[in-house]
Write a structure and sequence with these properties.
The chain has 297 residues and is an alpha+beta fold. It has one domain: (Glycosyl)asparaginase (Glutamine Phosphoribosylpyrophosphate, subunit 1, domain 1, 4-Layer Sandwich). The strands form two sheets. A nine-stranded mixed sheet has the order 4-3-2-6-5-1-11-12-13. The chain has a four-stranded antiparallel sheet with strand order 7-8-9-10, with helices on one face. A hairpin with a 3-residue loop joins strand 7 and strand 8. Helix 1 runs antiparallel to helix 2 and helix 2 runs antiparallel to helix 3. It is globular and about 45 Å long. Bound molecules: glycine. Glycine (GLY) binds next to strand 8.
């Protein structure tokens, strides 16, 4: 029997939170948590919950996903997103998708299809054909991103639902100034995310190239039963750092409803709640004291 009937943990990216942006990061991940949690408390699925949470982060220009995405070297927004259902091991992922408001929802539309990953114009065409919410590519560009320095800032969420299913979702604009067509870890199963009901779910953020080379998500799920949520993420990120460099962070949920996270970046905004400990908690870094937040009305 799970220890918690539901659990959800969301993050706003492995990065350095600039001075003055602390509140925006805290309130952003809390809003995403509230959206995902509403789904779970209403009896919805983990897949629905992580999609709902990530959509909120995609709408918030504080985060590098959807609106406010990093610009590539051509000054364009090309986005990656993925969703995985731990019950069926179905994956839907898109990379280099342009002109959509919610890349994670395009990934969701692909989830039950045989195709796992759609790229570029194929992904954008799929989004149009399946009537995903479209956006003028210029609408997604914020003034802040026009002058931004390189940073890693994928968003993600993992959840456990009342039927014992786990799910993971990621969404990112990639790296500022990346070459057109560059793909990071976020749409790659086993690298930027994974979900399996028998083990748990993980969503990563950080240096896409080294996360992929170290197969960080695969490492986390392999080590999760022995190391526990925090230990598994920490171990995988430390392995990555020592073997191939880079930094990052990750959030994990287990089928028992335990949540955990770790990051090797200066900050990683995180918010979480479980049915056993329903009061939302939020933090900008692992070593910071977590703030309790009154439950949303
Ligand atoms: N972690 C996001 C990226 O490297 O694209």
């Amino acid at each position: 029997m799970p220890e918690a009937a539901w659990a959800i943990i969301v993050h706003g990216g492995a990065k350095e939170v600039p001075e003055g942006k602390e509140d925006a990061n805290r309130s952003g991940v809390l809003a995403a948590l509230a959206a995902g949690r509403r789904v779970l408390e209403g009896g919805g699925s983990a897949v629905e919950a992580v999609e709902a949470a990530v959509r909120v982060l995609e709408d918030d220009a504080t985060f590098n996903a959807g609106m406010g995405s990093a610009l590539n070297a051509d000054g364009e927004v090309e986005m990656d997103a993925a969703l995985m259902d731990g019950g069926t091991l179905d994956v839907g992922a898109v990379t280099g998708v342009m002109g959509v408001r919610h890349p994670v929802s395009v990934a969701r539309l692909l989830l039950r299809e045989e195709t796992v990953l759609l790229a570029g114009e194929g992904a954008s065409r799929f989004a149009r054909d399946r009537r995903a919410e479209l956006a003028d590519p210029d609408e997604l560009v914020t003034d802040e991103q026009r002058g931004a320095l390189a940073e890693h800032d994928t968003v993600g969420a993992v959840a456990l639902d009342g039927r014992g299913h786990v799910a993971a979702a990621t969404s990112t604009g990639g790296l500022t100034g990346q070459s057109k067509g560059r793909v990071g870890d976020s749409p790659l199963p086993g690298c930027g995310f994974y979900a399996d009901d028998t083990v748990g779910a993980v969503a990563l953020t950080g240096t896409g190239e080294t996360i992929a080379r170290a197969m960080v998500a695969a490492r986390v799920v392999t080590n999760l039963p022995g190391a526990g949520p925090e230990g598994a993420v920490r171990g995988a990120l430390e392995f990555m750092g020592s073997r191939v460099g880079g930094n990052g962070g990750g959030v994990v949920v287990t089928p028992e409803g335990q949540v955990g996270w770790w990051h090797t970046s200066p900050h990683m905004p995180v918010a979480y709640a479980t049915s056993r400990e329903p009061q939302p908690r939020v933090t900008l870094k692992k070593t910071e004291e977590e703030a309790d937040v009154e439950p949303a009305q």
